[in-house]
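Re: beginner question about structure tokens

> Can someone show what the tokenized structure looks like for a real chain? I only ever see the sequence side.

Sure, here's an example I had lying around. Input first:
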Amino acid sequence: MTKGRKIMIEIKNVSKAYVKHKNVIENMNLTIEDGQIFGFIGPNGAGKTTTMEMLTGILDIDEGEILIDGINIEKNPIEAKKQFGFVPDSPDAFEKLTGIEYLNFVADVYKVDQKTRFEKTKNYMDK
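And the corresponding structure tokens:
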């Protein structure tokens, strides 16, 4: 680690198997410091999506731990998820939401209270 730099993502001894005794990810260790830009490159089946799904808390970790800004994604998922943003390669999840569901989702992310949410939504709908 560079002196004075903060560790933002730490993957420690992480393993994941979809079929018993056949790991997709085996004993993975990775440290990403604040300010670094990092990407996964590899063939299909290399574990890129599996790693991202564990990192975001979508998929459970079989062994090891993942820390986001020092917060364990499995033990404290809400606080860990507040530390990062994730843009999936496919927006399929958002296509299933109605307009009002999407607005409520965004309002939840930004902790907009119910009264303000209703007033702003009504204002824009009236326009």
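Each token stands for a local structural state, so reading them left to right follows the chain. The mean pLDDT is 88.
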